[in-house]
Amino acid sequence: MLPGSPLVELLLIAGGVALLYAGAELLVAGASDLALAVGLKASTIGVTVVAFATTAPELFVSVLGAVTVSTDIGLGAIVGSNVANIGLVLGISAIIRPLDISDTVLRRHVPFMVLAALLLVGLGWDGRVGLLDGLVLLAALVAFTAAVLRRVQQNQSAISETERDEMPDASARDVAVVAVGIAALVLGSRWLIDGGESLLSAAGFSDLFIGLTVLALGTSLPELAASVVAAVRGEAEFSVGNVVGSNIYNILAVIGIVAVVTPIGVARSVRGFEFPALLVFTAVAVGMMLYGDRVTRVDGAVLTVGYGVFVYLLLP
């Protein structure tokens, strides 16, 4: 087998999928145990630890792609990844098991997800996301982090001594399980991205198309793996928190950092199709969450079909 041959790329993709599944199992199990040990709600762990961990591939791909190849790859990966998080990750998770939306996620985290989408579209509408725009996004990230930390502090202070005595101790094993799970997710997504990117690049597809499809789907696989495993295990709050948190970090942290490193050009086609698609998927997801405080199986099917239409319309 020659390096770069189709068989090698397919083996990379298969190995990446296997690592993603193993990493998701470890991450969700370890994060669940840590949440119990420190007295945090599953939704808070999902929107912070799990979401930030599963955003690592987007950060790696976007920064590396922007610096060494093209900012089209970074922007395409993020916009496509956020659409995939809502349409595919939330959709499939809801099909597996209807997802109840916690009051904390709905009132405190979802507004930041909407704000992040609006900021990206608003700042990029002039065809460029520059240094000042990146600093605005990073400032919003600081505000989000401060709000989450304040909520965590409130939760901690509300725990009684009796409840604290009954809580299990956080162990080094739980931290190690989470760390190994994150590493497996990042490595698995990297293998899958390398395989898919090489196959599409050899077929003559553009950087923007690769970013919006293979890289976006590939970098969303950690979220998909973690959310699906959480849904199967009955940890719905992890699934929802993971999607909401990942969409926040993708824009505020990843695009913010890339824009500070190098200006991001926003093509007219992105403003004409991908930006509106991001806003529509975000609005539909929020509407579903508000209606009955849950995402039903029917909602999940609608989101998944919508994502399929989105990818179909991207085909050259």
What would your notes on this structure say?
This protein is an all-alpha fold and about 325 residues long. A two-stranded antiparallel ribbon has the order 1-4. The chain has a two-stranded antiparallel sheet with strand order 2-3. Helices cover about 85% and strands about 5% of the residues. The longest helix is centred in the N-terminal third of the chain and has 33 residues, at about 5-40. The protein has eleven helices and four strands, in the order H-H-H-E-H-E-H-H-H-H-H-E-H-E-H.
What distinguishing features does this structure have?
single chain, 316 residues, two-stranded antiparallel ribbon, 11 helices, 84% helix
Distance between the termini: 31 Å
| Rg measurement, Å | 19 Å
Number of strands: 4
> What percentage of amino acids are in beta strands?
under 5%
What does the secondary structure layout of this molecule look like, with pairings?
Layout: H1 6-38, H2 42-68, H3 71-96, E1 99-100, H4 103-124, E2 128-129, H5 131-157, H6 161-166, H7 172-202, H8 207-232, H9 236-261, E3 264-265, H10 268-290, E4 294-295, H11 297-314
Antiparallel strand pairs: 1-4, 2-3
Helix pairs in contact: 1-2, 1-7, 1-8, 2-3, 2-7, 2-8, 2-9, 3-8, 3-9, 3-10, 3-11, 4-5, 4-9, 4-10, 5-9, 7-8, 8-9, 10-11
